[in-house]
Design goal:
Elements (H helix, E strand, L loop, with lengths): L1 H35 L1 H12 E5 L7 E2 L5 E13 L7 H12 L3 H8 L6 E7 L1 H10 L4 E10 L7 H4 L11 H5 L1 H4 L5 E5 L12 E3 L6 E4 L3 H18 L3 E7 L6 E7 L12 H4 L2 H4 L9 H10 L8 E3 L4 E4 L2 E4 L6 E3 H6 L3 H11 L1 H10 L26 H8 L8 H12 L3 E3 L4 E5 L5 E4 L4 E4 L3 H14 L17 E10 L6 E14 L6 E8 L7 H19 L10 H11 L27 H11 L4 E4 L2 E6 L13 E5 L3
Parallel strand pairs: 2-8, 22-24
Antiparallel strand pairs: 1-6, 2-3, 3-4, 3-5, 6-7, 8-16, 9-10, 9-21, 11-14, 12-13, 15-18, 16-17, 19-20, 20-21, 23-24
Helix pairs in contact: 3-4, 3-5, 9-19, 12-14, 12-15, 12-18, 14-16
Amino acid sequence: MADHEKWIRIRIRLTAICFILAFGFIVARAFQLQVLGQDRWEKKAARQYQRTIPLIPQRGTIFDRAGQELAVSVEVDSLYVVPAKVVDPQRTARLLADALKMPLPGVRAKLKSDKSFLWLKRQVSPSESQRVQAMKLDGVGLIKEHRRYYPNSEIGAQVIGFTGLDPQGLEGLELAYDTTLLGEGGFLVMERDALGRGLSSGSEVQAGRRGSDLYLTLDKTLQYIAEKELAEGVNKTGARAGSVVMIDPMTGAVLAMASQPDYNPNAFQNYRPSQWRNRTVCDTFEPGSTIKVFLLAAALNEKLLTPQSKINCENGTYRVGSKDIHDHRAYAALSVPDVLKFSSNIGAVKVGKLLERDRYYGYLRDFGFGESTGLDLPGEVGGVLRKPSRWFAVDLAAISFGQGLAVTPLQLVMATAAIANGGYLMSPYIVDRVVDSYGQIEMKNDASVRRKVVSRDVADEVRKMMTRVTDSDGTGSLAAVPGYKVAGKTGTAQKVDPVTGTYAINRYVASFVGFVPANDPRLVILVVLDEPKGQDYGGLTAAPVFSRVASQSLRYLKILPTEEVNRSAMARVEAANAMPEIPEVIFASDDQNALRMPDFAGMSYRQVLRSMENMQLNIRLEGSGRVVAQSPKAGQPIRFGSETWVRLEPPS
């Protein structure tokens, strides 16, 4: 009996211990769930009755070097529907389709959907937003998102690029710096019931983080000048396309980069993809006679020639292998500077023969041909420069006057800058710095030397030779800029027919590359015209464009003239440019006779600049977008010495 009672007591104790252990486990588990795992389970519970809809992040702003906005993110309304909250789907669909200019069946289908949330139309116009808000429709809501806007329309379009709806960068800097510009998107938080149906208006928004800003080396005014004059040159010559590049030779900073035909990135879908392409980095062409600058620099650097050396140009015809090389005029003996001045192909061929294949190839590589420049823009190509082991005698001859190799406009302008700055090949850059949303500099670009190509003495000697090209009897005389010494070189190269594989008879690429002022280079500018009609020579088509771009840019940069203005030379250049005459503006103290302020209201930056040029006005421009204010007011007299300004703002 005692044993039986003892066993019962043991069983009771074991049972009690089991209950205590079970209770302890339950307490520990409850502590784990309710205390230690509180955040996790709260989030899990929230996911059961909340839905998050990602919103478009706000991209950083792109500025030019003066802080002028080139690409901004503006707030716009996006329209969504919660089908379960729509009271009268038929009426609501009819009203929305009419207000938004959308197909009625598509709107009706979204309103009758069993989903808890649907976008109806994203990034609607202000007028559409106002119409929908005025209707006060149940189940229909508006939320603020960000849309990319380019306040200067076509200015710098191929460089800046554009974004899609997401908004992922698709072209240009928007693509190259997509992750830098793209911030963190916010969320639209909506409550829902157990069946997933929306319970509230869904107006709770979790804010995101704005992306970083880009500050470019590009100058909006210089870019406008380059684009305006390039468009004029393409239109005047009937060329199928063209490009202009302007850089600072001492740093490699890109100041302007224009391509024609252009497009408006605010409506990029209305243009052909070929118009989106940045031709200055993506297109290649045979450089023609512009290559003679680097050929002579190489020969002088190797001390194979001196500026006083004479070269027999064979009176216009010289046979290499099975091919006859011709000059455009018959020359006998020419000095080295005259070979460049008169662009003698035969003289260039003989210099190339002195250099021989390997040395010449080495210098071409040193000047940057045959490899990409490393500029931070998408789509850059490296050109075509075959290994010297594949050159025959006729290939060496052809490459000596710029055929048989292909370069990009950017490569050619950077190589020319090496002559302008004393022999240093610089790395080009177009983004000066990246600044985060807190104003801190994330990245800063500075001038960087890739390599030294030729000695300073040789560079200075070639620079002197290039100034003779723009003399009155040189091939580039129309590139002259009154008041400044210009160093440059013309280029005219036949294009290869893709069908026959041989050079086409009537298809050329005309170019002019140069720097100014020649004695203290501040700008290196290249103009390329693809297939100009009628006049094919670079000295007749590209050189006048160079002259106009350079003269306006020098005035804008306030670079003082270095030479006495030759009136006859000025008249010859102006006649060749055939630009419309700008009437002289006389400022009078009498209000009745004084020039009066135009009405700039609503104009774009480009339209204001065009009006300023036509009326010879000096107006201070503030901001970007469209004109919202001006002083003096429209129609009021502009008095001499008074402050004149126009303020622009992007549309809200």
